[in-house]
Amino acid sequence: MYGKISPKNYFFVILTKNQYNSTMNKDLITKYGYEKIVKEFKDLLKEKSFWVKEKEIAAQLGDRSENAEYIAAKEQIRNCDKRLRFLDKIINNSEVVDISLIPHTKVNFGSKVVLEDLDTNEEKTFIIVGTFEVDINENKISNKSPFGRALLGKKIDEEFEFEINNKVYEYRVILIQEYNFE
Hints:
Blueprint: H1 17-24, E1 27-30, H2 31-59, H3 68-92, E2 94-97, E3 111-117, E4 123-129, E5 140-142, H4 146-151, E6 159-164, E7 167-178
């Protein structure tokens, strides 16, 4: 398993020293999240080429220092380049995990988890994803966040406490399943 995540349990991957050093700087990302980022990268390359053409056309209009179209196109190219560098780092420094290969009998990367808040009896749903896939509006939380780390490894019917900002919350795990990103 050279730098890949074990289908059985990605927490216990045996790595050589070189493999360990190369994967320590990598963030986990779902296959779905990776494909989404690659698509954004490709779309942004197309957008950048549009702005390069716009800049060339604007440059032909004369004095560049007072040319609003030229300055705007240059700014858009800069913005595209900045985002492309960011996305490139994600693409090249992430470990893509096929969550269908991971068991979801315990809370794991790519799991959808339904919890019961033992104080309010409310049900709360969370999806464990990589750092670059977090979306609070969809209850997607990072596997590296304090709450994400607290959830990992929990089983159905397991009760646990989570403390944050000097307040203790008590939860019980109701459901664990592989999240369907489609």
